[in-house]
Amino acid sequence: MALSLQEKIEDTNQGVYLIGTTPPKSGTDKAQLETIAQKLLGRLHEIEYDGVIIYDIQDESSRIAKPRPFPFKETVDPREYSQLLRNLSQLDVITYKSVAQRGEAEFSEWLNETRNDFELKNLVLVGSPSSHGDIKLSLPDAYKALAKQDSDVFLGGVTIAERHASKRNEHERLVEKTAQGCKFFISQAVYNAQATIDLITSYARSCKAQGTAPKRIILTFTPCGGEKTLEFMEWLGISVPEATKYRMLDSENTLSESVRICRENLDLILQSCAHLDVPLGLNIESLTNRKEEIDASINLYRLLKATMELNLAEKQIA
Description:
Number of helices: 12
Number of strands: 8
């Protein structure tokens, strides 16, 4: 019998390979929604993957003064798209939920709907992108509200290596989120390998000091097709070292160069963290709806999955 996504994530001998996507824009009717979902699954038909991550896209303009490179568009309810993709693919999904917009009562109602009406149990809760603005529910309070419910939610959290690079405490957040119920973590897109290595190292040392097993960290990678996508990546807070930036922009093919860089970064992370026993996973996303970048993300997935599978096989031999 095939393992569930939860079982794969919790089994450190298993690789975990995911595809990240955003729901279609708000107002998309059900027939068109299914057409879009079928098109996505058609693209993924030739690769083997364990499930899909569906993001909850929010207007993050409060986080940064710089204008958003691509206009923000409301999307359909991520739960609706998650349910559709799961039913069409027969694979597990992970659904993101931004919690700041509702109070505890509304959030508790959302949780009930999510389990009972949508039958979704793999969730990643995300806090406010900024400490400014109208925050109706903090992330810690959302975790508490979830803990009050007698539910079988398989809870994940977000981890941001860039935050560790500046504040040096992201590993403490991971330990704290684990205590609050998180069973796995998904990273922001990786373009700064050293920041990720530093985070994983600090996290492994904290877990060792406390005598606890580290939770799986699923590393996200995305291709970059040009200056506009790079601008969007930086707007999102993704750290792109200056040398990496110019290596992509000055190359004959920015997209191909970005795929090579992602492969090198994953190799470096795997080599540098092999001794730490932190289970890793892979998530590939495309930040734009440009066909070239979506196609490149599929090629990137193939390449990075092969890299991780080889690494996992070598560890099991050792």
